[in-house]
Amino acid sequence: MSEERPMEVVEEDKEEERKRKRVSEAFLGSGLLLSNLAIDVILERNIRPSRIIKAAREKNVFMVTKEFIEEFFPKEEKEEYSFVVKKGKPAAASQVEGKLRLYENRDITGKSTSEGTVENFMELFRDRYKRIRSVLEERPMLKDVVDIANVQKYEGGQVKIIGMVTALRESKKGNTLIEVEDTTGKALVVHSGDLRETGTLLVTDQLIGVVGTVRGDLILAKEIIEPDIPATKKQPECDEPVSIAFLSDIHVGSLLFKEAEFQRFLGWLNLQGDGNQRQIAQQVKYLFIAGDLVDGIGIYPSQESELSIPDIYKQYDYLARLLEQIPSYIEVIVSVGNHDAVRRCEPQPSVNGYLDSLKELPNVHLVGNPAWVNAHGFDVLMYHGTSMDALISSLSQLSYSQPERAQIEYLKKRHLSPIYGTKEQIAPEERDYMVIDSVPDIFHCGHVHKNGYANYRGVRVINSGTWQAQTDYQQQQGHMPTPCKVPILDLQNLQLKVINFEAG
C-alpha cells in the first residue's frame, strides 16, 4: 500500500497543474507549438504568454522552446504573470453591506423587439422626440411653446418653439442657419453670428428650444436652448467608508493587453499594496467596467495578427479567470462595448453566453450598454462611448485628448448618441434607450482609451481609459492612450483619486 500524500502537497500539485493548463490555453489557436520545458520556464519566471507569442511571430518561429525563451527574454527581466493573487487582511468594505440596484427597465437586455422596419424607426424617433421635448418644456424660458405649423400667426412678434435639428450651415454673412422640425412642420432659424462662439455646439438630430422673432419665413433667434441638466445637482450623502473603482477597455486577447499591470491591479484589490494604497483599496465596494472586455474577432482588418488569443470564447474564458480574482465582497458591474460579442448597434444587450462562469458569482452583474445602476444611493449612468467618434468628428471643439468634454455634450443634449446615421448605428427599438431623461450622479464612459474627469453641474463625469498599449492606428493618428490608470471615487467625500498601475 502506498503512503498517503499530505493534503497540502496534493493541493500544490493541483495548483501547478492548473497553472500549466492556463499557459497552454493562452497559446491555443495562436498557431504556435509549445514545449513542456518552455512551460517550465514561463512559470518559473512568470513571463506573460502574450509577449512570447508576439516575439515568436516577429521572428517567424513556429515552435516555442526553452532555448527561444532564454534567448529573447533575458533572465534579469522581471515579469508579473500569475493567476494566483494572495489575499490580504479583511478590508473595511467587506464589513459594509452592498446596496446595489440595477434599473432593468432601462437596460435593453432581453427586451429587443426591433425588426428593422420603417415603422420601428418612426417609433424610435417619436419616443426620442417626446421624452426630450418634455425635458425642454421644464425650462422656464420655454413655457408657452407653439407648434411650428402656427409660427406664421406671430409675424413680427416673439415665438417659442421646440424642434429637432435637421440641418446646420453657415450663411455668407457668417450667421448660423438652423433647420428645425417638429411633428407639425419645419422652420428656418437664423442666429446672428457664429453660434459656437456662445459655447453652444449643435449637431443634427438633437432637440433644441428656440426663442425668437418671426420675420417672414424665418425665425430670428434670441436664444438657442439645449435640454441640458439643471444648473446644480445635490449629491446623495454616504456615511460609510465606500468607494467605486472604474475600468473600461481591458481588451483581453490583444497582444497589447497590459496583463502584468492588470494583475498588479487585482493584487491591489486584494490589499497587496503599501499602507497608503491599502487604505484606498480596502474601501472599494463597487467596480464598474464600461465595456470592451476583450479585443474580439474581426473588429477591424488584419486584427488576427494582433491577437494573442484568436478565439472569442477563449478570450472570455481568460477574462473570467482574471475577474474571478476580485474579492467577493466587491460588487462588479460588467457592461459591453463595440469589441464585445454582442450586436454592433446600440443599445447593446449584456454579454450572456460568454461569461457563464461569472454569472454564477453573486457579486458579478452583467448589464447592457448603456446601463443605469444605483450604488449606495448614487445613480450611475455607464455607457461605453462608441458614439463619441461621431461627436468628436462633427465638433472641432472636441478632441480625443479630453473625452470628458464629449461626455458633457451628451448631458447637454440629453442623449448618448445624438447624431443619427453614422457608422455607430442605433437599433430602432420602440423605446430610445439612449435618452438621458433623468440626471445621474455619476456618468462613466470608456472607448477612447484616454482618462478624463470633470464635475459638470454636480455630475461626476469620468472616463476610465484603457488596459491596452498604444495601437499602430492610434500611433498613426497621434493619439496617446493613458493605460492602467484607475479612477477611484470616495462616496463619503466625493474625492477622486487616480492610481497608476503602470508605474508600479
Would you kindly provide a written description of the structure presented here, covering whatever features stand out?
A 6-stranded mixed β-sheet has the order 3-13-14-15-17-16, with helices on one face. A 6-stranded mixed β-sheet has the order 12-11-10-9-18-19, with no helix packed on it. A 5-stranded mixed beta barrel has the order 4-5-6-8-7. The protein is built from 12 helices and 19 strands. Helix 1 packs across helix 2 (36-45) and helix 2 packs parallel to helix 4. It has 504 residues and is an alpha/beta fold. Residues 1-10 and 76-81 have low confidence and may be disordered. The chain is 25% helix and 21% strand. Among the domains are: 7-72; 118-225, Nucleic acid-binding proteins (OB fold (Dihydrolipoamide Acetyltransferase, E2P), Beta Barrel), CATH 2.40.50. The protein has helices spanning 7-27, 36-45, 49-58, 66-72, 118-136, 259-269, 275-281, 312-323, 356-359, 388-394, 403-413, 472-477, and strands at 33-34, 63-64, 100-102, 158-170, 176-181, 186-191, 207-215, 218-225, 243-247, 284-289, 331-334, 364-366, 371-375, 378-382, 442-445, 451-456, 459-464, 485-490, 496-500.
Largest sheet: 6 strands, mixed
- β-sheet strand percentage: 15-25%
CATH superfamily descriptor of the domain at 118-225: Nucleic acid-binding proteins
What do we call the CATH topology of the domain at 118-225?
A: OB fold (Dihydrolipoamide Acetyltransferase, E2P)
Name the helicity range: 10-25%
Regions with little confidence, pLDDT below 50 for 5+ residues? 1-10, 76-81
